[in-house]
Amino acid sequence: MFQVLAVFIFGCKWLELQHHLFVFVSTDINCAPFLNSENKEMNHYFPIKHPYWQLYMSLLAVDSLDRSDAKQLLRRLAAEVDFSPVDRLYLEMQMCSPWFIPTKCHYLFFERMREKYCYSVMHPDTIDLLKQLSPIVELGAGNGYNAWLLAQAGVDVVALEAYPPHEGKNWFFGTNIFGLPKKNFISWTDVIKGTSIDLLQYPRHNLFISWPPLNEMAFDALRFYRGNIVILIANRANCGSPRFYRKLEKDWHLVYAKETGGWSGFQNERLEIYCRDKHLFLSERANKFELINP
Q1: DSSP code, position 123
Q2: What span, in angstroms and rounded, lies between the C-alpha atoms of 265 and 272?
Q3: Which 8-state DSSP code applies to residue 232?
Q4: Architecture of domain 124-288
Q5: How many whole angstroms separate alpha carbon 87 and alpha carbon 15?
Q6: Domain boundaries, the chain
Q7: pLDDT of residue 45
Q8: Beta carbons within 10 angstroms of residue 254's beta carbon
Q9: Does the N-terminal or the C-terminal CB of the chain have fewer CB atoms within 10 Å?
C-alpha cells in the first residue's frame, strides 16, 4: 500500500513539473474569432472571445487524429484547461491503455471546462439567436461566462446568482483542488447576488436559464417572473425539477426547440424558447424563428 501511494505522489509531482516546463505552442485561443456557421460561404466571422467553444472544437478534432497526435493534443488541451496534477495523471493512465479511445476522455474535460466556463458550450448560432431577444436577465448565472459572451455580442444582459463565486460559497464554480469553494474568485463579468424573487425587478427582460439545478430554483423563477419570454438550455435528465417542467407545459407556450449538440457523447442538451402571451410573441418575433406550431 505504501509503495502504491509513493508512486501516486511521485506521479503527481512529475506531472506538476511537466506542466510548468511544458511550452504550449499555438495561437492565442482566447482571442481567436470563431466562424459563424450560418455564414461560412461569406467567410463571415463573429468577432467575440469564446475560449470554451475554441477548446471544445479542438477536443472534437482529437477523434480524427492518429493515436500519437491525439495524445499530444489532449496534453495541450489539459494544460489550457488547467488540469490538476491528479487530473493529468488520470489522463496519462487512460492514454497508456492499449484500448485507449480519445472520446472516453470527453467527460473528464467536461467536468473541468464546465467549472472554468459553464455547463453549456454555447454554439455561435445560439448566441446569434439570443441577440434577438435582448434585454436578457440570466438566473443562476454561475461565474458569468454566458453573460460575458452575450454582452460581447451586444446583448443587454443582467447576471443573477444566489451564490456569486467571489463570495466563496459556490460549490460549482471556483473550487480548489479538493472541490471546496474558494474566495476571491474572479468571474467573467459582473455577477449580481440574486434569487428568483429578484426577477420581479426585471419585468421587461427576457428570462434565460441555463442548466438549472435539480432543486426548485427554476420553478420559483416562473412564479416570480413577470415577463413574456423564457429561454431554457438544459439536459432534462439532470436539470430542473418535475414541477418546473409541469409548470412550463401548463402555463407557457413552446415556440422554438432545437438540440444544441453540445457534449453530445453523453448529454442530450436542448435550447427551448417559451412565451407566456403567444399572440404578442408572434406579432413581435415570428419572422425571426422557425416556430413550433405557429
Answers
A1: -
A2: 20
A3: E
A4: 3-Layer(aba) Sandwich (3.40)
A5: 10
A6: 2-116, 124-288
A7: 46
A8: 17
A9: N
